[in-house]
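Cross-check.
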Amino acid sequence: KNIYLKKMKSNKIKEAIRQYAKSKISFGKAAEIAGLAISEMIELLAKLGIESNLELSDYLEGKKFAEVILK
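Predicted model, tokenized:
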């Protein structure tokens, strides 16, 4: 059972990476599909040499959201 769960998660991670690399989904959506924390997704993509497809607008939107949360 444990092997099956690992295999299932592995397939989800592969699919999330594939879609993200083709710019079909956002970074957050890729992490969600993969079942990973955003920090884990960042580390995994970096290890695989997959460049971020975040735009400046994505960064600014995230920064704005973080500022609201931290107030």
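Residues 5 and 11 are 10 Å apart (CA to CA). The chain is about 75% helix and 0% strand. Passed to J.P. for a second look.
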